[in-house]
Amino acid sequence: MGTMSFFVRPAGDGDRYEFGGATFTVKADGGDTEGRVGVMEQSGPPGLTVPPHTHEGEDEMFYVLAGELSGFCGDERFTVSAGSFLFLPRDVEHGFEVVGDEPARALTIVGPARFDALVRSQGRPLTS
């Protein structure tokens, strides 16, 4: 493995992809962190539904920046808004939707870094 290097990605910087109806801006991927963590800014329109799914061997976290999300993780239900932090443990089914009439934005953190590679490989690249 190589040596990790310091970097700054200013506001708005990072490769952007449309994936599952949401827009992802990659802030750090597995290549930046020796596979430990991936960080993306995720934005979804009102009414966006992310169907039930499971991340095998990968934890997912959201720090909600704007809007409101409602969903489930295992047997638990949640509704979260700006300033909330959500931890979705690996191997547990979860899903959510953007509720209310404004878009939702969240910093999406995954570890080890796997979902970021899925977004890159299956997402549609966006140009500004």
Automatic annotation (TrEMBL):
Give the SUPFAM superfamilies listed for this entry.
RmlC-like cupins
Cupin type-2 domain residues = 45-110
On the tree of life, the source organism's domain of life is Bacteria
Q: Which Pfam families match?
A: Cupin_2
State what protein this is by name.
Cupin type-2 domain-containing protein
Q: Which organism is it from?
A: Actinomycetospora straminea
